[in-house]
Protein: Monooxygenase
Amino acid sequence: MTTIENPVRTEAEWLATARDVAAKLAVDAVERDRANQTPHREVRLLKDSGLVTLLGPPEHGGGGQSWETAYRVTREVARADGSIGQLLGYHYLWAWAARLVATDEQIAAVEELYTTNKLFFGGAVNPRDSDLTITDEGDEIVYNGHKSFSTGSKVSDLTVLEGVLSGTEDHIFAIVPSEQDGIVFRDDWDNIGQRLTESGGVSITGVRVPWASAAGYVGKVFRPLTYNTLNVPAIQLVFTNFYLGIAQGALETALAYTRERTRPWPYGGDDKASAAEEWYILDAYGDLQAKLWAVEALTDKAGAAISAVLHAPREDLTPAVRGEIAVLIAAAKQRAIDVGLEVSTKIFELTGARASASQYGFDRFWRNLRTHSLHDPVAYKRREVGAYALLNEVPEPTWYT
Structure:
């Protein structure tokens, strides 16, 4: 076992680090979005800052922080660059994948490996695709197939694979090195938003994994816990936090532009010396800020709730508690999407016609939110909250709930 001395950082210090990283990303965010290049430099910044090991064990050089902190760090980074915020948030979820489903021995091995070496995670786990096929070859299992999305692909060091064992309905997760002949990233991510997330397709051919590394399997048998199903609400709250971060970044950017550049309207009969005195601008910014504060409060409440159970003994989680947390996250997610889309559209009315120039890149906030918020229909999140409010029903765990 490798032990690394690492200065202990408080939550406040980690958040300060995230803000420092965000400030660096903000400098050329517009240009990098337009260039749409693989974000090797950006991921190196996340590694060098230590943010990739925030959840890792302190004895291996990790931060030993809670998920509450991880969510807030994700949000801070997304204020400057939604793509990099998404990459970091997904990394945190996949770095926790072993804790979600693996054995104690597997957890210890994975966490030492990624924390000691500051490795970055990607994942080929898209449940809407036909699952990867897994064949049992004695002491090994072999993955073959395709996935349409593999976020983090070419910037990842490790990839989480998921597939179904041939002849069964058993799903098996495994963590494998990203750089190997059997994994070919298609480099076909060319969407209007979240352009730097490396979320293109992947082909998996003959990727071999020892049965001993099949997450949570002992003697080729998996023993399920309710805790295993936290992967979906945990990543849904990752989504919520980088949606909120994108919206906060949009508002902050627009406020700065209005202070510095927006001109008052001279034909309304109530002439003002500056745009910052215009009543309709003050009214609209006040409305948007209040809505974002409300989303932040709900999101933080959800973060505290799921963090408490993610860090508790796995056997303690009940389906009822899990369901109530999922409903809270569904509520936060729908609010983050609706308010975020409103903010990223309304800012053009408040900044003025000249702010639509491509050099300012204000459109990236809407493009980023609109693109990823289509991940799964938000109407189903509203229905989950409605069923809880009206019928006292909690959602059954699925790949999207």
User: Anything to note?
Assistant: Residues 122-222 form a domain with the Butyryl-CoA Dehydrogenase, subunit A; domain 2 fold (CATH 2.40.110.10). The CA atoms of residues 250 and 365 lie 6 Å apart.
